[in-house]
């Protein structure tokens, strides 16, 4: 009993001046069972053939004939023309059907990396939010004014961004005291947004301040932290800072 689909392929091949060759293997599971191929009118292999007979799948032959009909309908009926490609490829009569080139897997999207830069006046709204996480209240206007003043004395704060979102802030300060042989560096403020903690931004900011202080000739760097910020104390100890004094203040 003939297969209607194979019969249709044979008719389609004839319409293009080709001949459909069917495998003689009738045992399911055998290597060439159900395979088909194409030759020209002189029996020269065109597609899906090797030295021993057909090796093509019916659906592959169908795609080949469809492309041939769409692209090369005006080709000679005596010699079939392979579908045009960007780089023509000649298939020898005794060669097996070339396996399709494996497509390279898509490159995984790289995660954004944190970046450091100097704070800008346009950062004021976001800086107000971060400063409020420390329990301080300040207006955007005051932040812009303070940034302008700090820029004049070359002490512009450093901010950390991730995927263009500002997530961290650290202040820088250099002071000369009468009892120290060299300037003393200071971290007047350090804050990382709650949603960004654990990403290493705090370490990046502290490292940036320490580099800044070394360039300014400082031999010592200090930082103050509120008694209630136990997590911050643990962080500074982890960064190599030692507790050495008690801070007192008085409002004026």
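Sequence proposed for the structure above (252 residues):
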């Amino acid at each position: 009993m003939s297969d209607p689909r194979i019969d249709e392929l044979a008719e389609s091949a004839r319409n293009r001046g080709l001949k459909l060759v069917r495998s003689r293997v009738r045992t399911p599971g055998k290597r060439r069972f159900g395979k088909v191929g194409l030759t020209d009118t002189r029996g020269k292999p065109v597609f899906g053939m090797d030295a021993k007979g057909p090796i093509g799948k019916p659906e592959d032959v169908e795609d080949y004939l469809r492309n041939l009909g769409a692209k090369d309908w005006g080709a000679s009926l005596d010699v079939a023309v392979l579908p045009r490609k960007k780089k023509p490829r000649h298939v020898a009569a005794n060669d097996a059907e070339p396996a399709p080139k494996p497509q390279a897997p898509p490159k995984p999207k790289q995660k954004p990396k944190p970046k450091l830069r100097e704070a800008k006046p346009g950062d004021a709204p976001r800086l107000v939010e971060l400063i409020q996480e420390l329990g301080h209240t300040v207006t955007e206007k005051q932040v812009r004014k303070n940034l302008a003043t700090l820029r004049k004395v070359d002490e512009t704060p450093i901010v950390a961004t991730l995927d263009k979102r500002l997530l961290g802030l650290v202040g820088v300060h250099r002071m000369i005291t009468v009892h120290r042989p060299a300037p003393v560096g200071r971290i007047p403020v350090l804050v990382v947004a709650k949603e960004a903690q654990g990403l290493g931004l705090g370490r990046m900011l502290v490292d940036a301040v320490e580099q800044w202080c070394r360039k300014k000739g400082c031999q010592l760097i200090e930082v103050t932290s509120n008694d209630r910020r136990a997590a911050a104390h643990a962080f500074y100890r982890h960064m190599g800072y030692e507790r050495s004094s008690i801070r007192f203040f008085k409002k004026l």
